């Protein structure tokens, strides 16, 4: 008679430790490119160590942010393309840190999956490492957790936390913004990583084909939707070094109307002029295919603007020049003015 405990192993329960070890080996060379001189030790320890040179700062404040990518992962899974989703993850975290004026120093990731497929995990982490490289941020560690029975074998989700530093007197925010300030838009790279529940509903309801190339797009719909989120970190640091920036707004869920008021003081309002840029074709496609009203489109998506900076009107031209020199599509998109009540942002005119 066979022993009922013969198969009571971790592998039989669905957790493959050897696959996890192989995934680590595959990602090591990619992670090594996402480092900084302050990193102590390397990949493989129980914690990431980072030496903060406090002599560089008078009164340093640490800034932290945690985020994920959301249901954009469903598009990656549908196309079986997983090497860009990591850049989305990094962008959603470091660009939340940069808007308070802080430099993102290091990041740790977390990947939960139904089954560790080493090549897939390595592709995801490779994207994270590339995002960290683009942000000048060190990838000091992470965790991959295999959850058989809780998640289907092909399922995964990602999250990350980053930590940055800023001088106390350099923190950006509403208290610096004044009526008369000019708003500088920074172009997005596409849909970024917000609104994908609506994107997927439009695709399903309209019967759109991810492998097809709809009129107006220069690539397949799937490729356009998987375009990684733009990372603005190094370019923003260059801007801070040249221009007195009052506030920065990361345009994520809620769009411009939902996010811009978060960096405005009471007694002000922001007017954003749509006629200063063209609506990118992917948003026009989603709006038409999903019969989405313009106000809802602008609440769900970034509509072509990934970041907004508020600067004195006298600094606007200089700010645009600095950003363009860094490869960022930038332009004056509106202004802050005095008003009564709580701050708000109003979209006016029509797109080009």
From TrEMBL:
<dbReference type="GO" id="GO:0005829">
    <property type="term" value="C:cytosol"/>
</dbReference>
<dbReference type="GO" id="GO:0004637">
    <property type="term" value="F:phosphoribosylamine-glycine ligase activity"/>
</dbReference>
<comment type="pathway">
    <text>Purine metabolism; IMP biosynthesis via de novo pathway; 5-amino-1-(5-phospho-D-ribosyl)imidazole from N(2)-formyl-N(1)-(5-phospho-D-ribosyl)glycinamide: step 2/2.</text>
</comment>
<dbReference type="InterPro" id="IPR016188">
    <property type="entry name" value="PurM-like_N"/>
</dbReference>
<keyword id="KW-0658">Purine biosynthesis</keyword>
<dbReference type="InterPro" id="IPR010918">
    <property type="entry name" value="PurM-like_C_dom"/>
</dbReference>
<dbReference type="GO" id="GO:0005524">
    <property type="term" value="F:ATP binding"/>
</dbReference>
<dbReference type="InterPro" id="IPR004733">
    <property type="entry name" value="PurM_cligase"/>
</dbReference>
<dbReference type="Pfam" id="PF02769">
    <property type="entry name" value="AIRS_C"/>
</dbReference>
<dbReference type="InterPro" id="IPR036676">
    <property type="entry name" value="PurM-like_C_sf"/>
</dbReference>
<feature type="domain" description="PurM-like N-terminal">
    <location>
        <begin position="61"/>
        <end position="166"/>
    </location>
</feature>
<keyword id="KW-0067">ATP-binding</keyword>
<dbReference type="GO" id="GO:0046084">
    <property type="term" value="P:adenine biosynthetic process"/>
</dbReference>
<keyword id="KW-0963">Cytoplasm</keyword>
<dbReference type="GO" id="GO:0006189">
    <property type="term" value="P:'de novo' IMP biosynthetic process"/>
</dbReference>
<keyword id="KW-0547">Nucleotide-binding</keyword>
<feature type="domain" description="PurM-like C-terminal">
    <location>
        <begin position="178"/>
        <end position="339"/>
    </location>
</feature>
<keyword id="KW-0436">Ligase</keyword>
<dbReference type="Pfam" id="PF00586">
    <property type="entry name" value="AIRS"/>
</dbReference>
<dbReference type="GO" id="GO:0004641">
    <property type="term" value="F:phosphoribosylformylglycinamidine cyclo-ligase activity"/>
</dbReference>
<comment type="similarity">
    <text>Belongs to the AIR synthase family.</text>
</comment>
<protein>
    <recommendedName>
        <fullName>Phosphoribosylformylglycinamidine cyclo-ligase</fullName>
        <ecNumber>6.3.3.1</ecNumber>
    </recommendedName>
</protein>
<dbReference type="InterPro" id="IPR036921">
    <property type="entry name" value="PurM-like_N_sf"/>
</dbReference>
């Amino acid at each position: 008679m066979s022993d009922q405990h013969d198969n009571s192993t971790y592998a039989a329960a669905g957790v493959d430790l050897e696959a996890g070890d192989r995934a680590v080996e595959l990602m090591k060379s990619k992670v090594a490119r996402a480092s900084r001189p302050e990193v102590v030790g390397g990949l493989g320890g129980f914690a990431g160590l980072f030496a903060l040179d406090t002599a560089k700062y008078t009164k340093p404040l640490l800034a932290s942010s945690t985020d994920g990518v959301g249901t954009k992962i469903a598009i990656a899974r549908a196309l079986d393309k997983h090497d860009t989703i990591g850049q989305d993850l990094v962008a959603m975290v470091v660009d939340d840190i940069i808007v308070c004026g802080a430099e993102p120093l290091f990041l740790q990731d977390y990947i939960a999956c139904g089954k560790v497929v080493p090549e897939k995990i390595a592709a995801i982490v490779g994207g994270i490492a590339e995002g960290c490289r683009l942000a000048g941020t060190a990838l000091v560690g992470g965790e991959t957790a295999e959850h058989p029975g809780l998640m289907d074998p092909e399922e995964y989700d990602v999250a990350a936390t980053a930590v940055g530093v800023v001088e106390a007197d350099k923190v950006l925010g509403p208290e610096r913004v004044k009526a008369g300030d000019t708003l500088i838009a920074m172009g997005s790279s596409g849909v970024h990583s917000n609104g994908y529940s609506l994107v997927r509903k439009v695709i399903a309801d309209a019967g759109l084909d991810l492998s097809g190339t709809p009129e107006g797009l220069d690539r397949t719909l799937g490729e356009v939707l998987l375009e990684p989120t733009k990372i603005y970190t190094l370019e923003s640091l260059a801007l801070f070094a040249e221009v007195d920036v009052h506030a920065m707004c990361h345009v994520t869920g809620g769009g411009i109307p939902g996010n811009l008021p978060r960096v405005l003081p009471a007694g002000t309002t922001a007017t954003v002029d749509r006629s200063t840029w063209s609506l990118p074709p992917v948003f026009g496609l989603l709006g038409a295919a999903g019969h989405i009203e313009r106000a809802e489109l602008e609440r769900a998506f970034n509509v072509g603007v990934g970041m907004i900076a508020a600067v004195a009107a006298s600094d606007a031209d200089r700010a645009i020049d600095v950003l363009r020199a860094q490869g960022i599509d930038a332009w004056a998109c509106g202004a802050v003015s005095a008003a009564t009540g709580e701050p708000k942002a109003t979209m006016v005119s029509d797109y080009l």
